[in-house]
Specification:
- It is a single chain.
- This protein is an alpha+beta fold.
- The chain has 3 domains: about 90 residues, Immunoglobulins (Immunoglobulin-like); about 190 residues, CBS-domain (Roll); about 150 residues, CBS-domain, CATH 3.10.580.
- Helices cover about 25% and strands about 20% of the residues.
- The protein contains 13 helices and 20 strands.
- Strands 2, 3, 6, 7, 8 and 9 form a 6-stranded antiparallel sheet that branches.
- Helix 5 crosses helix 10.
- The radius of gyration is 26 Å and the shape is elongated.
Length: about 475
């Protein structure tokens, strides 16, 4: 009986563990308690990083000790935990049983619909908060950088689809109506007289247009927007920049990429120029013809490409398994005694729409969490919501300083905007103990530009992570 019962006892699932020796050498081997200190495991030199050796082992959960045999000498990594044992100074680790995180990227949707509430069961105990290894970060960044350098913007092009461009001579009213009807919040601007693309009209421009025109009179009138063209707006901004920019990047500096440019360069252009998208342009060889607009490439497109490639290679990007609260990522609520360079901006539902627009401009943020008095999340107001003011011509009769954010959100929720998430959800939430991999999975969904970090078991806002934050961290 005991023998048959023993045969039913399942072995604990193995946990993948990457061992790294980042200090060079000619030959490096790994030995440890998991080999009974007898067998040695050869380690491989990492491609394009000759000083880094690595090997991936599958170990049972629990406590392990290990050491490195480098060029005929026993060595330990002083940057990792180590102890004095009968075998000398050795490194030590404690492996928890953990799921295959990266293999679930872009897999089945969360039960209950397209939105993501905080999964307390997946967040783990507070004390399980691993620290970031410099070697793991180096390896992850190197592999993502190499992959993006080998991929081109052409890889992002769909088999079919449409891209909308606006003529520079359109009135602001016509342009905003098109954006609203198409369910988008930005579009490239073309100048038919020169056969060139000259810029991108986006929600931030609309914010500034509303505030600027509103200053010319007591109320913004529909006639003003009908006579005010995109060209007028561009000319005014260029003139203003001549005296106020002080060497900063000129507005309407058109940033584009060719289909053969690598995705690393495309991502860098988006981050360095602080733009939402980069148009992919194929220049025509015919003189006097408008270049072909192939796609608007975004960080979301590039992130989805990364997730798809590494979907079944979870061990290749070890830093993605870390909880987002343990790495320098995103913007967080300032705590007592802390000094945040860029504190998290939040507003209440009764604050004015004008205050929200001013905050977006001054703080250079694309969205603002709307919270109750106890910082409990109510909703989020983003740049993309601005085009909802086109509906029922709200821009013509509202006073920005008297119209509340709550009233503005009613305009948004009453519409059928294409950039909303499935089931009408407008944001994703997760916990500070959720992995970076999970946050990337959410950000890879269409229309998602940020994830709100809320306290476990509550809706109290603790931080916000944008897709730009993730790329700045991964690309260094």
């Amino acid at each position: 009986m005991s023998g048959s019962m023993a045969s039913l006892v399942a072995r604990p699932p193995l946990v993948p563990k990457r061992f790294v020796w980042p200090y060079g050498g000619r030959t490096v081997f790994l030995c440890g308690s998991f080999t009974r200190w007898q067998a040695i495991i050869p380690m491989s030199r990492m491609d394009s990083c000759p000083d880094v050796f690595e090997v991936l082992c599958s170990l049972i959960p629990g406590y392990h000790q290990y050491n490195f045999y480098v060029d005929g000498k026993w060595r330990h990594d002083e940057q990792q935990p180590f102890v004095n044992e009968i075998f000398g100074v050795v490194n030590s680790i404690y492996l928890l049983r953990q799921p295959d995180i990266l293999s679930t990227l872009l897999s089945a949707e969360t039960p209950g619909g397209g939105h993501m509430e905080v999964d307390n069961s997946a967040s783990g105990p507070v004390e399980a908060n691993p620290m970031m290894s410099e070697s793991d970060l180096l390896i992850s960044r190197h592999r993502i950088s190499t992959f993006l350098s080998r991929s081109t913007a052409y890889d992002l092009l769909p088999e079919s689809g449409k891209v909308i461009a606006l003529d520079i001579n359109l009135s602001v009213k016509q342009a905003l109506s098109i954006l609203h009807e198409e369910g988008i919040y930005l579009a490239p601007i073309c100048d038919s007289s020169t056969c060139q693309f000259v810029g991108v009209l986006n929600a931030m421009d609309f914010i500034q247009i509303l505030k600027e025109l509103g200053n010319h009179g007591t109320d913004l009138t529909e006639e003003q927007l009908e006579t005010y063209t995109i060209a007028d707006w561009r000319e005014g901004k260029l003139l203003q920049c001549e005296t106020n920019c002080n060497g900063r990047a000129r507005p309407w500096n058109f940033v584009s990429a060719g289909p053969d440019e690598c995705l690393k360069d495309v991502a860098s252009k988006i981050l360095q120029n602080n733009v939402a998208t980069v148009p992919i342009i194929h220049s025509s060889s015919e003189h006097g013809s408008l270049p072909q607009l192939l796609r608007l490439a975004s960080l979301s497109d590039i992130l989805k490409h990364i997730c798809r490639y590494f979907e079944h290679s979870h061990g290749f990007l070890p830093v993605l398994q870390l909880p987002v609260g343990s790495i320098p990522l995103g913007t967080w609520v300032q705590k007592m005694g802390e000094s945040n360079i860029k504190p998290l901006a939040m507003l209440g539902p009764n604050d004015s729409l004008g205050a929200a627009m001013s905050l977006m401009i001054e703080a250079e943020v694309s969205s603002i969490p709307i919270v109750h008095d106890n910082d409990s999340l109510l909703d989020i107001y983003s740049r993309s919501d601005i085009t909802a003011l086109v509906k029922k011509k709200a821009y013509a009769w509202i006073n920005l300083d008297e119209f509340s954010i709550h009233e503005a959100l009613l305009l948004v929720q009453d519409g059928e905007l294409l950039y909303n998430l499935p089931n009408g959800q407008r944001y994703h939430m997760c916990s500070r103990f959720d992995s970076l991999c999970k946050v990337m999975e959410l950000l890879a969904e269409p229309g998602v530009e940020r994830v709100l970090i809320v306290k476990d078991g509550t809706r109290r806002v603790e931080g916000i992570i944008s897709i730009g934050d993730v790329f700045r961290f991964l690309l260094g």
